[in-house]
Design a protein that fits this description.
The complex is a heterodimer of chains A (442) and B (427). Chain A has three domains: 12-140, Orthogonal Bundle (Fumarate Reductase Iron-sulfur Protein, Chain B, domain 2); 151-307, no CATH class; 321-433, no CATH class. Chain A is globular and about 70 Å long. In chain A, the strands form two sheets. In chain A, strands 2-1-3-4 form a four-stranded parallel sheet. In chain A, strands 5-6-7 form a three-stranded parallel sheet. The longest helix of chain A has 17 residues, at 244-260. In chain A, 50% of the residues lie in helices and 5% in strands. In chain A, helix 12 (208-220) crosses helix 22 (426-433). Chain A is mainly α and 442 residues long. Chain A is built from 22 helices and seven strands. Chain B is 6% helix and 49% strand. In chain B, the strands form ten sheets. In chain B, strands 1, 42, 43, 44 and 45 form a five-stranded antiparallel sheet that branches. In chain B, strands 2, 3, 4, 5 and 6 form a five-stranded antiparallel sheet that branches. In chain B, strands 15, 16, 17, 18 and 19 form a five-stranded antiparallel sheet that branches. In chain B, strand 25 (249-255) and strand 26 form a beta hairpin. Classes of the chains: A mainly alpha (442), B mainly beta (427). Chains A and B meet through helix 9, helix 10 and helix 14 of A and strand 7, strand 11 and helix 3 of B.
C-alpha cells in the first residue's frame, strides 16, 4: 500500500517564486552552495550515513505521523538533498517547493536525531543546507520571509520602528515603577554589568514581560541597561530561512550594541533559538569563535539571582507545573539541571516530563517553523501529537516554557489537543513568588 | 582627539590641580532619583536627569536644577561644543532641550540625538502627524516619510541624512517589499533609486556626497554613492567611508575569496580576510587601518594591508591613529581580558573593561579609562596610574601633552583634576 497523500498547502512564498526558476538556475545555486559554502563536515555526514533509519524514532514528526518514513530525519534528507546531489541540482522548480516544505516547515532543526544517529550526524545541518539553497533561490514560506525582511530592515523580527521601541520601554518603565519604586529601564548606560536583550514579540505584543524584568532587576539591584538603538533584538529568523548574510548583520548589530555600551555581559530573555543565533551560528559566520562579550540565557541569570540570594522567594507557586525544555538551551547548552533548580526553588509541585533533559521532544515550533505562519499551522500541530501526550501525562496544570517559540508552539498544542493547561514564561512565575522588600514597594 | 576638542581645550583651565565641582552624594539624598551622570568635555560641569518630586523630572547640573521640568526625559548628553541637551516630554509632546531651552518645534517623538563633529549642529530623528524626518538645529525637513531609521550629520553640520521608507508596506507583503521601498534622504530629499535595504551611510568631508550600504536582492549587496550603485556586487558589505578630502569611497565587501576592502568597488589591498570592518583613516588622510580577522577566531589590526603580528582571540575595537598618523592603538580583548594594544604590542595589564585609548599629542604615550570590578582607573602606557574612582570619563591631554585632565567621581565627589604627566609616569 502506498503512502497517504500529504495535504497541499498553498504558500505564495513558495508557489510564486518557483514560477521564475529553471533547472539551470537551480543547478547553478545548488552547486555554488555545495562547492563554496559547505566544507568537510558536509561530505563526512553524507558519506558516513549508512541509511540505517535509527534517527527516525528521534523525530516528533515521524512519531506523530503514524511513523510515516517521509517524516523521518533521514527520509527528509533523502527526499531533498540526496535527490539534489544525485542530479547535481538539475531538478524541476516544483521539486524546490517540496524541498522548502520539508526543510522549512517539517523539520525544527532541533537536533534530537543527532543523538539517535550511531555516528552523531548533524542531520539538521543538512536540512539547513537545503534551506540555504531554497533561500538563495528565493523560495521561502511567505511568513518566514516576511520575518527575514523585517530583520533586514529593522534588525528586529516584528517590524518594530525605532521610536516604537523606545516609547514601549518608557511605558513599561512607568508600569514597573507603579509596583517597584526603583523600577527603571536605563537606556544606553555605559559600563553596566548587564546588557539585557529581548526578542521583538516582547515590545510588539508582550510588553509586560519587559516591565516584569524592570521590576526583577530593581529588586535584585542589578546594574543593567538596554540600548535605545538597533541591536536590542537577539532573535534571528534569517538563520533559519537560510539568509546567512542577514543573519550576520543582525548578530553583528546585537553584539556591537553591547560593545558600544561597554557592557560586561549580555543577558538574553527567555528564547532558545535566539541563544543559538547569538552564541553559535551568528558569531561563527562573523568570524568570532565565541561571542565577543559573554552571553547567558535568562535561565542562567535567574539561577544566579535566586541562588546568590539577590532575589528572595516569598512563597512557592502551588499549581502543579511541568516544563517544556527549549532544544537550543537544553540539548544545545546543557541548562536542564539549572532549569529544574530554579523551578524547584519557586514551585511546590514540579512534574517531570518523560522523556526529559536533552532527550525531551521539541515544541514543534522552533527552527523557524512557527514563523512559516498560519498556512502551516495544521501540519505543525499534527506533527507533534507526541508532545501533547507527553504533557498530558504529567498531570500538570501549567507548562513553564523559557522560550518564545516554545511558548507559542505549546499554546497551539494545548489548544488543538484540548489539554486544558496554561503556558507561562519562568519570569511570570518569578513575578508571582518574588519577594519585593517593603521599602521598594510603590 | 577631534578638531573641535583640540581647539576648545586650549582655553580650558589647565592650572588648577583639583576642583571639587559638586557633591554627588548630596544629590542622591536630595532627589528621589538621580539617573546616569554625564560630564562636560572640559570637566567643569556634571549633570544628570533627576526626579524632583513624584511627578516630574528635570536636569540637575552642578547641583542646580533646570527651570524646565518634564513628565519624561532621556538622552542627556553634552555635545562636542559643550552644550547640554536632553530629550523631554510634556503633554505627549517631545522637545529637544538645549541648555534648558526647548527648540521651537515639538514632536510626537524624538530620538537618535546626534551632533556634527565640528559641534555646529545637533540633530534628531523625529515623528510628527505627517510622518518621519530629521530635525537639525530645530529646523525640520519639509518632506516626511513612512519611516526613518538613522541620522547622519555632515562634519560641517550643514547636511543631514537618514535611511527612509518611501512607500507603505503591509506586514506579510513580501512581493511589494521585493520591489525595493528603501532609500536615503539627504536634507529631506530622497535618492531617486530604491533598494531592498539601505543601511549605514557616511558623508564626504565636504558634506557634498553620501555613500551607503545597500541591498539589491537576497545575498547581493553593494555600495551606493549619491544613489548610484557600484557596478560590483558582493555577498555582503559593511559601512563605507570616504577617503579624506576626496569623493573616493572605501568599504568592506564579501567576495568568494573572503572579505576585502574595496575602493570604488575595486579591491584595495592585495589580500582577503576572514573578516574586515571598522576601517579608519589616519589624520594625514593617507594611512588606512581596519580591524581584520586573518583566520577564524583571531583578530587584529591591519594598516595599509599589513596586519599586526599579534592577534587576539575575542575582539578588537576601532583602530585609533596618533596625531602624526604614525602609530595605531586599539582596545583589544584576548582570552576574556581587555587591554590596549599599541602598534601590535598589547599592554601586560589586563582589565575587566577598557574605553577607547587616547594618544598623547606626540604619539609617544597612550592612556585610557579602564575598569576592574566596580572601580575605574586611569591607565597610562600599560600601568594603572590613578584611581580607583566610582566613575570616570574620557581623559584628555593638553596641547603640549604634559598634563592630563581627569573627570572622575571619588568618594561621591565629582572632581576635575589636572595632573602633570610626569607625576603619573612616576607611579
Amino acid at each position: 500500500m502506498g503512502l497517504a497523500a500529504l495535504p497541499i498547502v498553498n504558500d505564495p512564498g513558495l508557489d510564486i517564486p518557483i514560477q521564475e526558476l529553471t533547472p539551470e538556475r537551480i543547478a547553478e545555486v545548488f552547486n555554488r552552495v555545495v562547492d563554496q559554502e559547505t566544507a568537510a563536515r558536509f561530505k563526512v555526514y553524507l558519506n558516513t550515513c549508512v541509511h540505517c533509519g535509527l534517527c527516525s524514532d528521534a523525530c516528533h514528526w515521524f512519531l506523530s505521523n503514524d511513523r510515516d518514513p517521509r517524516f523521518s530525519p533521514v527520509g527528509k534528507v533523502k527526499q531533498t538533498l540526496w535527490e539534489l546531489i544525485k542530479k547535481r541540482g538539475r531538478v524541476q522548480p516544483a521539486f524546490i517547493k517540496e524541498c522548502s516544505r520539508i526543510a522549512h516547515t517539517e523539520c525544527n532543526v532541533c537536533r534530537r536525531c543527532s543523538m539517535y544517529c550511531p555516528f552523531g550526524i548533524d542531520i539538521a545541518y543538512l536540512l539547513l543546507t537545503v534551506r540555504r539553497i531554497c533561500s538563495e533561490l528565493g523560495v521561502v514560506p511567505q511568513f518566514l520571509q516576511d520575518t527575514v525582511n523585517s530583520h533586514a530592515v529593522t534588525l528586529n523580527q516584528m517590524w518594530v520602528k525605532q521610536d516604537e521601541w523606545i516609547d514601549t520601554l518608557q511605558w513599561q518603565e512607568e508600569d514597573a515603577r507603579a509596583e517597584v519604586k526603583t523600577g527603571r529601564i536605563p537606556l544606553d548606560k555605559e559600563g553596566a554589568d548587564v546588557f539585557y536583550s529581548v526578542i521583538a514579540p516582547e515590545p510588539k505584543i508582550l510588553a509586560q514581560l519587559i516591565g516584569n524584568i524592570a521590576q526583577i532587576m530593581a529588586v535584585a539591584k542589578v546594574d543593567w541597561t538596554m540600548p535605545s538603538f538597533d541591536g536590542w533584538d537577539n532573535s534571528n529568523m534569517a538563520m533559519y530561512s537560510g539568509d546567512f548574510e542577514i543573519m550576520g548583520r543582525v548578530e553583528r548589530a546585537h553584539h556591537d550594541a553591547a560593545l558600544r555600551l561597554k557592557s560586561r555581559r549580555i543577558v538574553m530573555g527567555e528564547c532558545g533559538h535566539a541563544f543559538r543565533g547569538a552564541v553559535y551560528d551568528g558569531p561563527k559566520w562573523l568570524g568570532w569563535r565565541e561571542p565577543p562579550i559573554p552571553l547567558i540565557h535568562a535561565v542562567e541569570f535567574y539561577h544566579e539571582l535566586i541562588f546568590s540570594g539577590r532575589l528572595k522567594i516569598s512563597h512557592k507557586f502551588e499549581t502543579p507545573v511541568t516544563v517544556q525544555e527549549p532544544c537550543n538551551i537544553i540539548r544545545g547548552r546543557g541548562l536542564g539541571p539549572k532549569l529544574r533548580e530554579i523551578i524547584q526553588a519557586t514551585c511546590a509541585d514540579f512534574r517531570e516530563p518523560e522523556p526529559a533533559f536533552e532527550h525531551n521532544y521539541c515544541c514543534g515550533a522552533g527552527g523557524g517553523t512557527i514563523n512559516c505562519g498560519p498556512p502551516w499551522k495544521t501540519s505543525r500541530v499534527k506533527g507533534n501529537s507526541v508532545k501533547a501526550e507527553q504533557l498530558a501525562a504529567t498531570g500538570a496544570h501549567v507548562i513553564i516554557t523559557p522560550c518564545h517559540n516554545c511558548h507559542s508552539g505549546i499554546e497551539d498544542i494545548v489548544g488543538a489537543y484540548k489539554l486544558g493547561m496554561h503556558v507561562k514564561f519562568f519570569s511570570e512565575i518569578l513575578m508571582e513568588v518574588m519577594e519585593i522588600p517593603e521599602e521598594l514597594k510603590a | 582627539m577631534t578638531e573641535i576638542l583640540k581647539n576648545l581645550s586650549n582655553s580650558w583651565d589647565w592650572e588648577t590641580p583639583t576642583k571639587n565641582i559638586t557633591d554627588i552624594n548630596q544629590w542622591i539624598s536630595r532627589f528621589l532619583e538621580v539617573q546616569e551622570l554625564v560630564a562636560s568635555p572640559d570637566g567643569e560641569r556634571i549633570a544628570a536627569i533627576v526626579q524632583d518630586d513624584d511627578e516630574s523630572f528635570t536636569v540637575c547640573e552642578n547641583g542646580e536644577t533646570w527651570s524646565s521640568t518634564f513628565e519624561k526625559a532621556w538622552s542627556l548628553r553634552f555635545g562636542p561644543d559643550g552644550k547640554l541637551y536632553v530629550l523631554g516630554m510634556n503633554d505627549d509632546e517631545w522637545s529637544v532641550n538645549e541648555e534648558d531651552k526647548p527648540w521651537d518645534e515639538s514632536f510626537e517623538y524624538v530620538w537618535n540625538l546626534g551632533f556634527s563633529s565640528n559641534g555646529n549642529a545637533a540633530g534628531v530623528n523625529v515623528r510628527n502627524s505627517e510622518g518621519y524626518a530629521v530635525s537639525l538645529n530645530g529646523s525640520t525637513w519639509d518632506e516626511k516619510f513612512f519611516q526613518i531609521r538613522s541620522l547622519q550629520i555632515s562634519n560641517d553640520g550643514q547636511h543631514s541624512a537618514g535611511n527612509i521608507q518611501t512607500e507603505p508596506l503591509s506586514e506579510g507583503d513580501i512581493f511589494t517589499f521585493k520591489k525595493g521601498l528603501w532609500s536615503l534622504a539627504v536634507d529631506g530629499r530622497p535618492w531617486e533609486q530604491r533598494f531592498l535595504n539601505v543601511w549605514g551611510c557616511s558623508f564626504s568631508d565636504d558634506g557634498s556626497r553620501v555613500a551607503a550600504e545597500v541591498r539589491l536582492k537576497t545575498g547581493r549587496q553593494t555600495i551606493a554613492v549619491d544613489g548610484v550603485r557600484w557596478d560590483q556586487e558582493f555577498k555582503a558589505v559593511w559601512q563605507p567611508i570616504f577617503i579624506p578630502g576626496t569623493h573616493e569611497v572605501i568599504a568592506p565587501g564579501l567576495t568568494t575569496s573572503g572579505w576585502k576592502l574595496h575602493v570604488n568597488g575595486t579591491p584595495l589591498w592585495n589580500r582577503s580576510f576572514n573578516q574586515v570592518w571598522r576601517q579608519k583613516f589616519a589624520p594625514d588622510g593617507k594611512r588606512l587601518a581596519a580591524v581584520v580577522s586573518p583566520e577564524f577566531g583571531r583578530w587584529t589590526i591591519a594598516v595599509d594591508g599589513n596586519q599586526w603580528k599579534t592577534t587576539f582571540s575575542d575582539v578588537v575595537l576601532d583602530p585609533i591613529f596618533s596625531e602624526d598618523s604614525k602609530h595605531v592603538c586599539a582596545a583589544v580583548k584576548d582570552k576574556s581580558s581587555w587591554t590596549i594594544a599599541v602598534d601590535g604590542a598589547p599592554w601586560n595589564q589586563a582589565f575587566d573593561m577598557v574605553w577607547d585609548p587616547v594618544f598623547s599629542p606626540d604619539g609617544v604615550s597612550v592612556m585610557a579609562t579602564a575598569a576592574m570590578g566596580i572601580n575605574h582607573f586611569l591607565a597610562l602606557d600599560g600601568k594603572i596610574v590613578l584611581g580607583p574612582f566610582e566613575a570616570m570619563w574620557e581623559p584628555i591631554f593638553n596641547e603640549n601633552g604634559d598634563k592630563v585632565l581627569i573627570k572622575c567621581v571619588e568618594n561621591g565627589q565629582f572632581l576635575r583634576r589636572v595632573v602633570p604627566v610626569k607625576d603619573l609616569s612616576r607611579k
